[in-house]
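Retro notes
What went well: the complex prediction finally ran end to end.
Inputs used:
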Amino acid sequence: MTAPGKTLAELARVVDGKVIGDDGIVIDRVSAIEEAGPGSVTFLANSRYYSHLNRCRASAVIVGRNIISDELRSGIPAALLEVADPYVGFAKILQIFSPIERYDGTISAQAAINADAVVAEAVTIFPHVFVGARAKIGARSVLFPGVFIGDDAVIGSDCILHPNVVVRHGCSIGDRVILHAGVVVGSDGFGYAGRSEGRVKIPQVGVVEIHDDVEIGANTTIDRAALGKTIIGRGSKIDNLVQIAHNVVIGEHTVIAAQAGIAGSTKIGKDVILAGQVGVVNHIQIGDGAIIGPQSGVAQTVAAGAMLSSGLAAAPHREWLKVMALLPQLPKLWNLVRALEKKVEGFAQGVEKDNRR
Amino acid sequence: MTAPGKTLAELARVVDGKVIGDDGIVIDRVSAIEEAGPGSVTFLANSRYYSHLNRCRASAVIVGRNIISDELRSGIPAALLEVADPYVGFAKILQIFSPIERYDGTISAQAAINADAVVAEAVTIFPHVFVGARAKIGARSVLFPGVFIGDDAVIGSDCILHPNVVVRHGCSIGDRVILHAGVVVGSDGFGYAGRSEGRVKIPQVGVVEIHDDVEIGANTTIDRAALGKTIIGRGSKIDNLVQIAHNVVIGEHTVIAAQAGIAGSTKIGKDVILAGQVGVVNHIQIGDGAIIGPQSGVAQTVAAGAMLSSGLAAAPHREWLKVMALLPQLPKLWNLVRALEKKVEGFAQGVEKDNRR
Amino acid sequence: MTAPGKTLAELARVVDGKVIGDDGIVIDRVSAIEEAGPGSVTFLANSRYYSHLNRCRASAVIVGRNIISDELRSGIPAALLEVADPYVGFAKILQIFSPIERYDGTISAQAAINADAVVAEAVTIFPHVFVGARAKIGARSVLFPGVFIGDDAVIGSDCILHPNVVVRHGCSIGDRVILHAGVVVGSDGFGYAGRSEGRVKIPQVGVVEIHDDVEIGANTTIDRAALGKTIIGRGSKIDNLVQIAHNVVIGEHTVIAAQAGIAGSTKIGKDVILAGQVGVVNHIQIGDGAIIGPQSGVAQTVAAGAMLSSGLAAAPHREWLKVMALLPQLPKLWNLVRALEKKVEGFAQGVEKDNRR
């Protein structure tokens, strides 16, 4: 992760920050605070770690604005780079020192590219890639080994499709999209009519449309629509092993953590956050900005801005067994308490009568 | 999705339906009700949407028998196609307009096919496919790029193995089976004997047997048996990212939704439905026709026809935190209520005595 | 699974066991007890099945030491092989009859191997494998079709990478590691700074380090660290479809069942067991030897040796609906009971006063 050095003044310009200390120091890498040394910049987003700062060997530390008191400052050997959001500052400086890899823009002779595919300039295609008929690959995109692009699929510009990504026929991917290894886009939705012996497959003749700046984690699956489109909105980020069923529509800048699953035709708004292992039933809406806690089950439409949970926290096993056994008796317990209440109420009235007598 | 047109009379014959209106209209596609226009047939399975019918621009609408009153009928511009199950009718007509794609029956020179493999007639093998020694591929089956067929594996006729499907050695797949992209069949079961440093791998020397007409979703994993067979019964449908452990046996026409997991040696009957994210422990049985709700944990054998759940519905986060904190105290609450009950019972007897005095 | 036969005496030496009966019998395979016949050895770990023994057609049965009474013994036609742990004995004997497959040590001309990669002796590389620049493959390792090894990645000796495994750049794999089909090692961690439109990707510039004797199940994903390393400790076993996030550190000989997920930077000790579908939040520790039950959510640091659960067992659906509806009212119920308690306490004091009057 070593790249040509930048002065702290140069870095400050990139992140709209203010240097406290020597802005001429040359920085050549980003390090975790415990591994930082001369030449490295580190960051501090959490006040819990302020006490580490006087032992920090980094040349510079990215911190929030007006966070570090003058008194504390005097004991810190490193220069400070004050920014509005130290985490964003860290991300942007890390991008400088870890530029998106340059690919060589060559197309492997060991790839299988249909003669009717349209491949733009500076595209890199590794060996063992398959590109179907009439598929389009946008400028500077990279297809790693084992990638499959179906007939009539469209990949935008500056995309990275990691090894063994599958984009089936007719699906479209916007610009600057990153699909991690093993992602499947456009598998058939899980749709059947009828029952048992008479069950009939509903052909899944729709597509998937992934908009610009989306990133999708390893081995996540996104099914094509039955009719119409499954849509992943601009800027949304989806983690590993997530299931997106047919005809789901996800808004912009929504974040979905690992192993969450969204059932068919559900509409998720923008800026929504689904934590890990969340399950969402089909045919509902989740409003803009809603936040759903880990392992929760979403069974009904959720209002914009709502914050919901149904996850449970692990407790000592023996005690939990008792809880588990009692839980189905909750209705009985309620009835018991209601009955007791009545009885006690009856006494109270009797006592009153007694007192009045 | 445009195909040569069919008259409504022709379509009626396929779905055993009755036309109300002009049965000579030519239909050339199936559309969602909101996107339908002249030439398209749409369907209506849910009475909620009857009110849309008078604005519907489709040439024909598939509906249930004797569902639409004469009064309602008079306001509907489209012809009606009455069938026993409109959803099945829709599926069958969609199949007509979206026929299973024809593949060209050629074997790519960029595939690696063992000289001892047996490939039947009209099989299509795309580039970058691997077929091992003595493997058999049945007539008209299609192996998409990146498919791996291990030594001695058997694939039936008319199967479609989507990109990057893996079928390891010795496993067998019936006829008309669809394996979606990234499915793994025959990975080693998760079996070890002993503990810690002394843990020993139990060789997984069994196989997986997938019967006819099964469909398995993207990136689902089906482990081979330790000894014997893991079996997926005829006509069963399994969604994406499902885990089927070693020696599991699944009956016919069972449906398993996304991200469900079934632990080792469990036997699932026929016509069972497991909803999304269900977990089933090892070494139990789930009887025929049982239905398990989303995110439920199945810890004991389930009787045929039972309908079970243990999923929880997400509630406002702050309130849920209180519920979560109180839940482990449920045994204490019960004890408290029991004690109260006794005390109140004591009063009641005291009061009775008082009254008798 | 038939291999050259061994006498029971020979097998007894391998598993440090004692033969009761004819130790000269020749055994040529291992069978499940219900399928055993002459020539096969089977095993019995569970006393439930003792009654099967007198009908067992196996030539020999592996059992625990001093488990079978002389009386029971007299009715059993098979020889007995007594060992300390019959399950481990079974595993070791199965290994003898199912030796790790020999691969031919050839490198396919249809693989794409960078000229700067270093491939040790006796490595087997199947067609359609990709090996990047400066990558190292240790002696006798096997790369199945579709495997991707990124630049600078290191694979140890005697590893087996099943079809379509992806090991991205810079990651390292120890010796005798087994990665099942579709495993992804080194995908980017799910890391962003900022919100909504202003969200910025944090480059994930760390790596994954997998130590010796690890086995990882099909389609499991292990993300590379943001900075530093994601680590899987020696001898740990991970099942299918598991998610390991960036900067997670897992100790030695830990076992993680299918579909579990571990969020970022969490540290798991050694000899830990996580059951299926467990979710663990980020930035916590799970101590050595802890055991977490199926579907549990781990939201806080767990002490060494603790045994925790929060999974729920499926109950009849209609009754469960009532439980689900009442659960959010648990705080109300507690308040009600507390109020009742006070009231009853008040009576009790009143009654006492009455009695004293």
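What we learned: The mean pLDDT of chain B is 93.
What to try next: split runs per interface for comparison.
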